[in-house]
Amino acid sequence: MSHRRTRRALLDERGMALPLAMIVLVALTVMVLTFLGLSSVEPQISQSLADTARARYLAESGVEWAFKRVASSAVGRDGNFDSSLLAGPDGRENTADDQQPTDVTGQNTAAALTTLGSPSPLPTRSAAEGTYAVTVRNDNLPDDDTFTGVPVDPGNKFTDTNGIVIVTSTGTYRSATRTIQVAIKRLGLPPFPGAVNVPGLHADTFLGGNVNAENASRYDIDGRDYDRSGVATSNKTKLGLQVQPGIQAELGITYEERVEQAFNTSGSRLGIVKGRNQADSSDASFTTGTGAIGSDAALSPATMSDFLSRLASNPAAQMLESSPACPMVMAGGSGNPTSTPSLTNGCGLNQTVSLGTVSAPRIVYVRGDPNAGSRFAALTVSQTIEGAGILIVENGDLQQQGTLRWDGLVLVTGPSVSAAFRSGSMTTIYGALAGLASRPDQPDGLFALFMDDGLDFRVRSSRQNVDMVQRMLALHTILSWRESQR
């Protein structure tokens, strides 16, 4: 009997509804509170992600701004970055603006690029919409090679010797911060020891019969420094004409003697060449004639070859292919000079090409045929043309038949080539000219520098224009990149 009462009690479900209802209510309450919590946190997470993304974009803006600022900075020794860049906005070493943190653990301070203590907002935007702060330093610290991929700069905090600096850009928006660090490399120009340089393995030079100093206004090779307007400056004087040291093998005389032969045929010709007196070890004196023609090993075929190989792979270089069957002809205007001449090759090509301006210099690279069976004019210039930057003619002659004004560098190079300036032409180059033939055994009648009768020819050294070329954005690259978040 008792067993039946116990069993009925156990099977009696009366009173279970309330506990079950309480359990369900608690579970629903927990779920509702969880959903409410998530709904309040998700906007915060979303806002944090948005703020972080915005901070990153601000840091990228700082990198872009800094890249242009670094590229346009002063040129130091051997084309590297000048110490003024690493000394901060005031240009003085070891002051507050070059003691900014690098945001890299264990590394020393750096120079500010943005205004000290005032991170920069985007153009036309307020600081409340986000800012970036940028510093720059030399890559001379331990382990910098693991970031840049090249050996640590042996210089110090204010002395760049390898053309590499490390830029740190920090973007900030609200409470979010992103830091991007990049290594920027400047491709240094080869040294140009003279206004005109004949640094190849032969120095054969030709001057027409009436090329002499009696027509001083028409012929001028001058290693003194000028700005692009023709005003002399106090910058260091270079040789008027540079050659390689050593012996021109097939003649048994020095390269210097060989190039001087063209100017020694008439005493008045010696007055065409002006520049640093090679006999003065202090480099302080100026002379004319053979004294301004000297050897200097700083510019050599190997140096030029290395530089040109880097330029040839540069995406900013305008590569123009020329061949004996389809040689390039560049024709300008018949009156006023143009920096956008027409380009034809007799094989269907007919287009314009931009030769750049002093505010936007260009790399114009005319590449001939190294396997051509005979010499040919890879580029012929006619009518009136002007340009700025680097004009390169490789593996073929330059035939200048028109009126050419160039601010920067004109380079003619290859195994058997000539920089030829023809009768009736007018040439003005402020910067440097190089005619480099890299083949030691040359056929007769080949001249690295050829100046015909009845022309106007002026080449003047200009640090202003060479520095303009060195500061081109195209000669700067980002080697490496890393990001961090705080």
Describe this structure in words.
- 21% of the residues lie in helices and 33% in strands.
- It has 2 domains: 52-186, no CATH class; 194-470, no CATH class.
- Strands 6, 8, 9, 12, 13, 14, 15, 19, 20, 22, 24, 26 and 28 form a 13-stranded mixed β-sheet that branches. An 8-stranded mixed β-sheet has the order 7-27-25-23-21-16-17-18. Strands 1, 2, 3, 4, 5 and 29 form a 6-stranded antiparallel β-sheet that branches.
- The protein is of the alpha/beta class and 486 residues long.
Keywords:
33% strand, 13-stranded mixed beta sheet, 21% helix, 486 residues, alpha/beta, 8-stranded mixed beta sheet, elongated
How is the secondary structure organized here?
Layout: H1 2-11, H2 17-71, H3 83-86, E1 111-112, E2 120-121, E3 131-138, H4 144-148, E4 164-173, E5 176-186, E6 194-198, E7 205-207, E8 219-225, E9 239-243, E10 247-248, E11 253-254, H5 255-264, E12 273-276, E13 286-288, E14 293-295, H6 301-312, E15 318-321, E16 328-331, E17 342-344, E18 350-352, E19 356-357, E20 360-367, E21 377-382, E22 384-394, E23 397-400, E24 403-414, E25 419-421, E26 426-437, E27 449-451, E28 456-461, H7 463-470, E29 476-485
User: How would you describe the shape?
Assistant: elongated
For the largest beta-sheet, the strand count, sense and barrel status come to: 13 strands, mixed
Query: Which consecutive residue ranges, at least 5 long each, have pLDDT under 50?
Result: none
What gap, in angstroms, lies between the N and C termini? 77 Å
Number of helices: 7
Report the mean per-residue pLDDT as an integer.
88
Rounded to the nearest angstrom, the radius of gyration is: 34 Å
Quickly give the structural class: alpha/beta
- The counted number of beta strands is 29
Our count of domains comes out at 2
Give the helix level as a range of percent: 10-25%
* Range of strand content: 25-35%
